[in-house]
Prior knowledge:
By secondary structure, chain B is mainly α. Chain B is 82% helix and 0% strand.
Amino acid sequence: MKRTLAVVFTVAGLALTGCGGAKVGESPGGGGGGGSQASCGEFKIAINPWVGYEANAAVIAYVAEKNLGCRVTKKDLKEEVAWQGFGTGEVDAVVENWGHDDLRKKYIDEQKTGVSAGSTGVKGQIGWYVPPWLAKQHPDILDWNNLNKYAEMFRTSESGAQGQLLDGDPSFVTNDEALVKNLGLNYKVVYGGSETALIQAFKQAEERKTPLIGYFYSPQWLFSEIKLEKVKLPPYTPGCDAVPEKVACDYPDYDLDKIVSKKFADANGPAYQLVKNFKWTNDDQNIVARWIAVDKMSPDAAAKKWVDENPDKVKAWLPSSS
Amino acid sequence: MAATSSSPVSRTLPRVHIVVRDRGRIVLGILAVWLLLWVFLRGMHTLALGGAQLTSVHHWFNNLNDVIGANRNSNPVFLYFFNYIRLFVDEFVIFVQSVIAQPSFGRPLPLIGWLGVVALVGFVSYAVANIRVAVLATAGFFVLGLQGLWRESMDTLALTLAAVIISLVIGIPLGIWAGLSDRFARLITPVLDFMQIMPSFVYLAPLTLFFLIGPASATIATLIYAAPPVIRLTAHGIRSAPHDTVEAGESLGSTRTQMLTKVLLPAAKRTIVLGVNQTIMAALAMVTIAALIDAPGLGKTVIKALQTLDVGTAFNAGLAIVVMAIVLDRVTTAAADRGRRRPNRIVLLAGAAATVFAIWLSYTYLWAAEFDARLDIGSTIVLWAGEATDWVQSTLAPVTNGIKDAFTWVLIDPLQALLADSPWWLVAVAIVAISVVIGSVRAAIVSAVCLGLLVATGLWSDGMTTLASTLVATVFTMVIGVVVGVWMGRSQRADRVIRPVLDAAQTMPAFVYLVPFLALFAASRFTAIAAAVVYAAPVAVKIVADGIRGVSATTVEAAVASGSSTWQTITKVQLPMSVRALTLATNQGLIYVLSMVVVGGLVGAGALGYDVVAGFSQGQLYGKGLAAGIAIVLLGVMLDRLTQAAANRTQRGGSR
Amino acid sequence: MHGTQVHDTQQPVISVRNLWKVFGPKAARVPGSAELGALSRRELMDRTGCTAAVRDIDFDVAPGEVFVVMGLSGSGKSTLVRCLTRLVEPTAGEVIFEGEDILACDPKRLRDLRRHKFAMVFQHFGLLPHRCVVDNVAYGLEIRGVAKAERTKRAKEVIELVGLGGYEMSYPDQLSGGMQQRVGLARALAVDPDVLLFDEPFSALDPLIRRDMQSEVIRLHREVGKTMVFITHDLSEALKLGDRILIMRDGALVQIGTGDELVAAPADDYVRDFVRDVPRSHVLTLKWIMRPPRDDDPLDGPELGPDVVVREATRSVLAAEKPVKVVRDGELLGIVGDEEILSVIAGGSDS
């Protein structure tokens, strides 16, 4: 009854105003940017679950849509699942890849469904980090040789008598158990289990000035809030991490790169050109990541802002024909 | 053990008590022997395995995974079977999405806009249930729009609906079959157990291998988890049709088909609708997790918000899931309870006309198609929830860390040391012996088989660590279950206030409260236990409350009349008489705790939960993750059978 | 100890011969074995793990007769009645219905028999809770394929007949127990069966309603004249309704006879114990209490038939100056005087 009344009311309202308002389909905004090349077609980009990646993807997607007229589909996927997508045509591009020699071997060398599309210009680092207050108070903590001195300080309910080394973003390979053993450290690796757990732990450690040492990586949006300090491990030399059980050196620096599906590369369309040419810096990525993570901008808005501020960089990425 | 095998026929009430006490002593004896041996044998044969270490079983799973991936487009099983399933499911989901959620048919918006959906929901609720839930449903869906999550909600709804419809199409016939055939019921029950206990993380990644990334995988993942309830309850409904009615139908010469369609199914209708209700709830819970393989909707919002510790946004989306769950739950429950009252035909017709009109409006006009963004309570919720979380974190954290340390030291560490540091064979022998004493010989055989297979997964040590946390979480769950359950069972008012809170706690995706929990307890086993308790306690509380309320009023009256104090009434009458409910609550509590093991892995529980999470994320750990998933199922089956055997035993003794 | 055939001239509707129903493992070996068949229930259980619910029963039911099977709970009477239409599959024996062995029927024929020849009324009514009264009553016709209009018409007639007019659209849970059983009765009558089977139909009802329903059955029996097989554990119900009564104990037949035969000449102590509390004057007829005329009896008193119940004869006997003559077809069978009548009414002593 109530509903009937409401409808009668609505109809009366519509009759009074003489029209029903804007109609679906004749909306002023319309679809994506008209006038660009129609040849781009659909561009399926994987979104791996970290903010730095999302910054890359947001900017590439924005440029692909606005400048190239692509229909961009973003798919939220974990790395391995995204790589699987190359073979099935579900994914065209992964736009920030951290090493992943295992996946390279499987999908590039063996299944031949993916190919590398060059560096993103961003340098990745994995290692052990401490909150800034701790580094300031105990500067020598940044050398692994002194870690045993502080083991007592890092004890928690999870590590018992040893110091706790907080580990475990499940997406990344870790050598930490071997490192602790081979470097003779009095620490126990505790698996936090998610990036969220790690971020929360570092944030709290800095806010409350509690001790914490753990596995982390940069670039990461958290660095725009808290400048975590990296602990120096024995330097990386090529091949020092060949046997997982015997690793006693730091993680290598990663030249983060882009991986695309073989089909996508072979077609050599404008979207592929864009992905191949895409290159920026750690600082560029950190800015966009910060807008997304801390200032809560939508990825699209953050990308627009950055693109508007950096027209030259964007121009260099565009396919030569345009 | 000899005492327990005495003939049950000759048991009398006093002797049962003696037997129960004896059983307690025997268990204590077993534990004492175990402890003694532990002192000497600690650290031997623990089968520990490092984080990156793999066994041959894990490698074998890895290879299997690779082989499937490599042959997807050449193998006929894929070409002619899986690919068609995928195509069909994909098309179906996309169709549902295009109707209510996604731009479609060349339009920038879905076919039916918000006004149409709200009207349709209200109308359907009225048609299948009553006007009260129709109002609730309409209001609930309107709130989804106000929260600024209309499209995400509709994506979730579309996926849920698609998964539920497919679940019902498959599940109801299977349930009927299981209801009619004992043999099929025996065959399918363990499969259903497996489907429900197996952590969804374990099969998410493999599913994408079979069905690719996209709606099909998400739907099938949801289906695996959501179909069992409707199968079970359909079978149960068919089985519990009144015997006289069935016989009457038979005596009048009904054929098998007539029997089924005219007698059994109508008699089982209420139970089947309850099964549909549970399937919907399970599907909704699973759709959130399926966001990890790109399932669209609210789950994605929650998971994305987690990356930046944005509790406010996660809470807002979680709240939308709760709202949708409550609407769907109340409507289906009311539909089950409606009985024969038919809605007024004139109102129905008018409603149908109004709904069609609303749908047309929402098809045609922008204001009815797209929810007006100016009507927004979502950002307020985000802000408020974020601030509340900050306040709680900064105020309580100093206290909570002490609590965590105390519990870890007193409860978790000793138990874990006993389970994980003993030689594996000692643990196995002790558990099997305890199974015989508190359960049955059959339960002991199941325990033995499960423990043997657990050794085979190569994850014994992790399994024991997880078992320790699981047991502690179950104890907490039961403490809360008994305290709150007794309170609710005795006070109608408490029940009315607490029950909605329990519903919300159960449907709020666990991801939402992980961040505050991490802030309060850091990444630790205790955090994982706390998360599991939040999820499992509501179920235990409800079962205990129902059990307490089920105690005959006359008996309680008699106890009060003979001068029992409230405490005496509770401990000497109400609790002993609801012993069946208590064991059932323990059983369900355990299963719910186990289903949170993987979530625990995300917040520092390590062990099996982390193995599963890491296996989902890293290719070379895939096999280990799968093995860990199986290990969780093995623990689940073992604990389930054991508590059920114990329950049957107490029931047998208690009812004499 | 088999009862005599009352209606000698007519073919029986149902003849049951050597009927066995044994529950348990390898049940079929029990009926064939003289040794096992002779064991008591407890011994049989210990020896074979089997229970004989019905053991070696014979009886005939005549057309139009109300045949009552009576026994305590667990005596096998409910199993026996289910064996008649194979709701429970008998282990051995014969059930001949109008010359056809029901145990030899194929499923289709059996279904036909159930649809057209038999109808059953159940202890707990067995109504379909999701259907209203008229649809419950029409169920038997519906599954036979009778058109909707026709079956509704028939159902309404029967509902009228059992006195439920006005309740056609009610649902079972809106009716009292007595009314629900009327629905059960109507459902059975609606298919116009040859035989009505009643399985303790009134034991779940209040005593007052039970009495009503018993009268209802008597009335219906008078009106429609169906053959009825009626199961009960209540002796007074058995005596009230039954033309003949079969008494069962532990699955075996103890005695078959009319009510007055059971009361006057119980076959054994079990039956005697059973009928002890029956008000004998309500059951016994004059033929059971008459005595041969003595020489000094004046033979010009009033005459009564041998089948007149004592209670009904009391007044005339006591009022008469002289002893009453019991006469059938003009032949003097015996004499009943004040003394005989008073000894029955005073009760107590077994005859």
